[in-house]
Amino acid sequence: MEAVRRAVLAETGIPGADQVVRAASRLLRDGGVEVVQLGVVGPAALAEVALQEDAAAVGLPVGEGHEALAEVAAELASRGLTDVAVVALGDATTTGWETDLPGRLGPVLGGPDPSD
């Protein structure tokens, strides 16, 4: 029996974060990943849900609040979850965040199509 892949996605409160999370959730579900979708939660709460759900990845929209990626990675590490990927969701052209998590950052998933 194949293990269930699970991701926990949360919003950050930046404008459009809810749309980014919904779009990423659809992409992941279409790819066979079980998704736990949260609203706006802090890094500690997101890491705790990842622990409880035995998640392989957590995802947050990137943008002005990119510092949250590093905070989530630290919270995951404090719980011994160093194998959980931290995935940036949204606009891959955002600069600055990719240096926050060298060697830890998972893939970047695109946000909603602006033509939708």
Keywords:
alpha/beta
Brief write-up:
The protein is an alpha/beta fold and 116 residues long. Helices cover 32% and strands 24% of the residues. The protein has a single domain, classed as Rossmann fold (3-Layer(aba) Sandwich).
Walk me through this protein's architecture:
It is a single chain. This protein has 116 residues and is an alpha/beta fold. The protein has a single domain, classed as Cobalamin-binding domain (Rossmann fold, 3-Layer(aba) Sandwich), CATH 3.40.50. It is built from three helices and five strands, in the order βαβαβαββ. A five-stranded parallel beta sheet has the order 2-1-3-4-5, sandwiched between helices. α3 links the parallel β3 and β4. The relative contact order is 0.21.
Write the layout of secondary structure elements.
Elements: E1 6-11, H1 17-30, E2 34-40, H2 43-53, E3 57-61, H3 67-78, E4 85-89, E5 105-109
Parallel strand pairs: 1-2, 1-3, 3-4, 4-5
Q: Ranges with pLDDT <50 over ≥5 residues?
A: 94-116
CATH fold topology: Rossmann fold
Distance between the termini: 38 Å
What does the radius of gyration come to? 13 Å
Structural class: alpha/beta
Strand content: 15-25%
What is the helical fraction, as a range of percent?
A: 25-40%
Mean pLDDT value: 78
| CATH architecture name | 3-Layer(aba) Sandwich
